[in-house]
Write a structure and sequence with these properties.
The complex is a heterodimer.
Chain A: E1 4-7, E2 10-13, E3 19-25, E4 30-31, E5 36-37, E6 39-44, E7 51-55, E8 59-60, E9 68-73, E10 76-81, E11 90-96, E12 103-104, E13 108-112
Chain B: E1 3-6, E2 10-12, E3 18-25, E4 33-39, E5 45-52, E6 57-60, E7 69-73, E8 78-83, E9 92-102, E10 105-112, E11 116-120
Parallel strand pairs in B: 2-11
Antiparallel strand pairs in B: 1-3, 3-8, 4-5, 4-9, 5-6, 7-8, 9-10, 9-11
The chains are: A mainly beta, B mainly beta.
């Protein structure tokens, strides 16, 4: 299985400031046949199911605010919240869906400083 | 509206069997994979496996192979997750989710059910 490692485990950011979450895969999730990174990001608020934010590493799901962006390629990826809002308090997970099998990162908890 | 509606919370004893359900609506049920995800209390997300209702092609995470059975009944647009003999360690929230993909390929999870809480206690 591909192991996904997120960092940090948690972070506290002031309202309006930038939040950056990192995700590293144990092997590349860039599929050579279509040059796509098989990486998604999810947001989970307390008591709710996860919500898809980003797929193919950088494509924002419909309806997701543009303050959320994804970047990276191969084994290193980043989710950035450009200006943190109160409603962004949540746990964020990366997930790879490379054809060998699907795995999640351990999650990063984002709080307000 | 695309929806996945999961069955209600369950309280079971160790050794009992259980089958929980996930009913899809608002889309072509046979053209999308349905995946199952476990979330133990206070923990992260774990992908358990997946089924393609169109032909019942089923895949399991190695961690869950042999521990659970995933099935689907396309006539009633419902997927299932079942256990033959529950353990206390099966206590968790279980989510179903629609996985975008096609043919033998499955990708990200774009629509999620609200989850089914399973509690196993003597």
């Amino acid at each position: 299985d591909i192991v996904m490692t997120q960092s940090p485990d948690s972070l506290a950011v002031s309202l309006g400031e930038r939040a950056t979450i990192n995700c590293k895969s144990s092997q590349s999730v860039l599929y050579s046949s279509n040059n796509k990174n098989y990486l998604a990001w999810y947001q989970q608020k307390p008591g709710q199911p996860p919500k898809l934010l980003i797929y193919w590493a950088s494509t924002r799901e419909s309806g997701v605010p543009d303050r959320f962006s994804g970047s990276g390629s191969g084994t290193d990826f980043t989710l950035t919240i450009s200006s943190l809002q109160a409603e962004d308090v949540a746990v964020y997970y990366c997930q790879q869906y490379y054809p060998t099998g699907l795995t999640f990162g351990g999650g990063t908890k984002v709080e307000i400083k | 509206e695309v929806q996945l509606v999961q069955s209600g919370a369950e309280v079971k004893k160790p050794g009992e069997s259980l089958k929980i359900s996930c009913k899809g609506s608002g889309y072509s049920f046979t053209n999308y994979w349905i995946g199952w995800v476990r979330q133990m209390p206070g923990k992260g997300l774990e992908w358990m496996g997946i089924i393609y209702p169109g032909d019942s092609d089923t895949r399991y995470s190695p961690s869950f192979q042999g521990q659970v059975t995933i099935s689907a009944d396309k006539s009633i647009t419902t997927a299932y997750l079942q256990w033959s003999s529950l353990k206390a360690s099966d206590t968790a929230m279980y989510y179903c989710a629609r996985q975008v993909g096609g043919g033998p390929y499955y990708y990200y999870m774009d629509v999620w059910g609200k989850g089914t809480t399973v509690t196993v206690s003597s």
